[in-house]
């Protein structure tokens, strides 16, 4: 599975070996990193609040409505 470069959010579909860092079915912000993506990784902000590389197969790109994207950007829950 590849991550679309225009997507800024992904949903976790696998977390094998990273259960403390990634929650299944949770939406994560993806940071563009073309070099990592070329090597099969995606950079996301994980549960620690820091950005890390994870295998791209762990995520599926999603389209987020603009109203929801604004909510994510402000950190509102």
List keywords for this structure.
77 residues, alpha+beta, five-stranded antiparallel sheet, 2 helices, globular, disordered N terminus
Largest sheet: 5 strands, antiparallel
The helix count comes to 2
Q: Tally of extended strands?
A: 5
* Terminal Cα span: 29 Å
**Given the C-alpha coordinates, what overall shape results?**
globular
Radius of gyration: 12 Å
What proportion of the residues is helical, as a percent range?
10-25%
On the 0-100 scale, what is the average pLDDT?
86
Helix/strand structural class: alpha+beta
Strand content: 25-35%
Going across the biggest sheet, name each strand in turn.
Answer: 4-3-2-1-5
Please provide the ordered H/E string of secondary-structure elements.
EEHEEEH
Ranges where pLDDT stays below 50 over 5 or more residues in a row are: 1-6
